[in-house]
Amino acid sequence: MPSTKQFQVTFDCAEPERLARFWCEVLGYVVPPPPEPFATWDDYRRSQPPERQDSWFTCTDPSGVGPRLFFQRVPEGKAVKNRVHLDVRVGTGLVGEERLAALEAERARLEPLGAVHVQTPYDGHDACIPMLDIEGNEFCID
Question: What DSSP element (H or E) covers 139?
């Protein structure tokens, strides 16, 4: 049986484009070109029936290494904690105060984008900073 080579991460959300653009800023991802034969995303959007307009959006890793992120509008709001979340890895290989400083610097970069700081558990050696994105989805700075 062949192994899976690619996957995407799908977010259920209220505002797909807004959330996708937030994650582009967080991860350094980009908005891909619109589907053929459309010159712009606005052209594509206008071609859709009203009920499908703004129903999804996507972003991709410009290096092609990370997974595609897909954002789909759903009618219900977020009600409970995520069962899956992203870890934004900025402190890999760092320990102690050096790790905490790297994580705190990333937290400071993300808060003006609309991310919400939940807490900063730190035991003197290791740290991970739980955050909320602009729609309340949990993620961690790790």
Answer: strand 138-141
DSSP character at residue 111: G
Distances 76 to 12, 18, 70, 108, 115 between C-alpha atoms, Å: 9, 17, 17, 31, 21
Q: What's the number of CA atoms in the CB half-sphere (13 Å) around residue 109?
A: 15
Using DSSP's 3-state secondary structure scheme, residue 112 falls into: helix
For residue 72, give the amino acid letter: Q
| Residue 26: other Cβ atoms inside 10 A | 20
- Of 90, 89, 88, 78, nearest to 134 (Cα)? 78
Complete edge-to-edge strand list for the sheet that includes strand 129-132: 86-88, 138-141, 129-132, 116-117
pLDDT, tens digit, 9 for 90 and up, residues 47-90: 999 888 899 999 999 999 999 999 999 999 888 888 889 999 99
In single-letter form, the type of residue at position 93 comes to G
